[in-house]
Fold:
Amino acid sequence: MRRIAVALILSGSLVVQGECARPKNASAQGVAGQSDEARLAFLSKLLEEESGRARTWTLAWGATYGVGAVVQLALMPLLPREEQPDLYWGAASTWVGLAFTLLGKPEVLEGGPLFAKRASAATAEDTCAIIAEGERMLEMGAENEQSSFAWYLHVGNVLFNVGLGLVLGLGYGHWEGGIINAIVGSAIGEANILTSPSHLIPGWKRYRQGEAPSPVSFFVVPTAGPGLGVLMRF
Structure:
């Protein structure tokens, strides 16, 4: 009788663990259609890994913008006064890029490891609440990553740098420097946008609907020597 009772308790526990609510419109082929244990493991792994990518991206671009601004300001005293506006306006635009990089940190950067820690210590009583929190973080993170590639960000980047070029051209007569600043600044801004973390987008689709084709993505990686490289994954 004791063995039967234990078996019933265990089976009842398994049923409870598999009854956490699913996201709206979730497919049985997605991770959301699997056991609660599998869902929690998927969410924990994906969010923690994306946190690492977001941290690398933030630190890499923060260092790139910071060093760029400092170098331009340091070179100013070495140039004739009439040539200095090109550098301090260039440094100003670099500080703007640094501000956007640091102030736009995604929730997953800090939240991913914290969620993984909670998931590893989950009990039968709080599993559903933790899964719901992970789903919220994944869904919101995917939406934010998708918006980071929005067309208006590309347009805004180009307009900002073209405006800087016009300031140098119209305000100081430095048309050559203005054109160079506009081109280089736009290219750096586009690289910043295109290399931003994006793995939560296909992760959310896989979680709700099943396997999805992996999109082409770019991200910043350290190189063997001093500097950074851009890696394409597809």
